[in-house]
Amino acid sequence: MKVNYNYIKIIVLVLFVGFLYAFSNHRNRTRKVSEPNIEFQGENKLFITEATVSKLLIQNQQPVSDQPKDIIDLNELEIALKSNPMIKKAEVFMSVNGELSAEIEQKRPIARVNTNASYYIDDEGQFMPLSTNYAARVPLVTGNIKKNDLETVYQFAKAVDEDEFLKKYVIEIHQNSDRTIDFKIRKSDFTVHLGTLNQLEKKINNFKAFYQKALKDKILDKYKRVNLKFDKQVICTKA
What we know:
Blueprint: H1 5-29, E1 37-41, H2 50-56, E2 58-59, E3 62-63, H3 74-82, E4 87-94, E5 100-106, E6 109-114, E7 118-122, E8 127-128, E9 140-143, H4 151-162, H5 164-169, E10 170-175, E11 181-185, E12 191-195, H6 200-217, E13 223-227, E14 235-238
Parallel strand pairs: 1-5, 6-9, 9-10, 12-13
Antiparallel strand pairs: 2-3, 4-5, 6-7, 7-8, 10-11, 11-12, 13-14
């Protein structure tokens, strides 16, 4: 009987390749996860630290590092990161050799509520806690404020944040009991009564024109109250 060595070679080769695949697959599944590589995206990198992010990267009640790669649930890790009120966005990746990376975008505060409770309002109108690492230089919010009803204050704070002039000068935003808005500006003692947010852009332009004229005439310190309630005029009360 003649033996076909070509068939034997093919069978041996198939078995060898299968062994290598199984070995590689087993080795890949049991590979340990490395220390996470944490990258902060965007300009805000001050409110939460790498150490805090690392503590959120938990699987089976243990840090992900040194755990087998195949038990790591990336979606679960992303959910854990996004649960932190300082974090706006989070994405977690893992390479084939077990290197774990997390990309973090922190929230950006545009105002700081300073009433019975202190916290930030972020650029999407959401609650953001204060940070022990950094204090943002944003306008203070005072008055009749409720954490679950920030819309009016947020809309004006957003207008301030998006306007170069207002962002430079507005230091305090006050919401009255009737939900009208007052604000104060840097290096001036008078209060500006904005009223409602109706015709907001026009009211802001009226205030800018008043401020530039009063600054030029050196009479800013003569006023106690500036009323923008009426969109066609600025009414000033002298001190």
